[in-house]
Design brief:
By secondary structure, the chain is of the alpha/beta class. The protein has a four-stranded parallel sheet, covered by helices on one side.
Amino acid sequence: RFTEPGFLEDLCDAGLKSAVVSLHSADPEVSDAMTMTPGSFARTVAGTRAALAAGIDVGVHCVVERANVDGLEAHARFVVAELGEGEKAVTHVSYSFPIGYRRRELYHGAIAPLDELRPRLSGAVRILREHGIYVSFLGTSGFVPCAFDDPASLIASLPERVTDEMRESRIFVEPCSRCSVRARCL
């Protein structure tokens, strides 16, 4: 809605300083399919550009599913080329695991296997970091460290203390028992 006449101005007058927009793919068809809203990609990109031009600190959030996993590096390159250049640029990108769907039967089919995800997520993170864009992808709604090519390099990004409450919805499988970062993994 940032492109609607007066909408962004009213928000800025009310004190808006930062915003996070959902942009799930650099491919308009994939993005629109994921949001189930035709034309949402074009409106999201235009609104993001308008917010950046107004001096708003904008972050991009991307839910990673089977539908967009193959395009994660293209997504990162799009953010850099189209939304990440100059003083008025996207400052951070977050990638997350889909938490759940209203239609439960669609949820399990949307999950991207880690072996497919790992090289694509790692590539996207490298691209964004190379261009000075902060990336988050770990944590309770993010991915496990082993979803990245070099999990040990992420140790500084992991929480110092992980409680049982923080882990209550997590399941550790047998290979987790040998992982060097398991104690701090969510």
